[in-house]
Amino acid sequence: MSAPSADATRSLDVALVKAGRTKIRYPARLLHDDGNHLAVRAPWAAPGVRDFGFVRFEPGDVFVEHYWRDRWYAIKEVYAGDGTLKGWYCDVTRPAVRDGAVLTVEDLDLDLWVSADRGTVLRLDEDEFAESGLAAADPAAAAAAVRALDELEALARGAGFDLDYSATSSTS
């Protein structure tokens, strides 16, 4: 496990971009940045409750989000307000870019949900991905996105996610 970086207490904004527009931007606390893997901690940033049927995201939830500069996905550990792990929400994205206090991640529509007990693994939004036009506009990126979703699913169904820096490393 890597030691936390010297700037582990710094705040930054996570900007989630989709189709060239900022979908959401929210404050987070930087836990770790080793030059490739970044981990941030942030409260549920959207207003109100979002019930997906298989999980509810709600005020009080905490996300420990893992991003990489060389991977086409992000893995978000989702905790209830009482600290109970709900599961992992994985976004297929272009590799993360950090510019000062802003971490920008481009969402490519594909997602994966893994329940805390790993009994439920769901591929999400494949229809949105197909309709996005990415395969025609950027075939290499579309292929990388599909490979990333397959990799995430294989990890979820296999040994699980080996996250270098998790919520247990910093609970404040």
From TrEMBL:
Residues 54-156 form the DUF402 domain. Keywords: Hydrolase. The keyword Hydrolase applies. The keyword Hydrolase applies. This is DUF402 domain-containing protein. It comes from Streptomyces atriruber. Pfam families: DUF402. It comes from the Bacteria. InterPro entries: DUF402, FomD-like_sf, Ntdp-like. SUPFAM superfamilies: FomD-like.
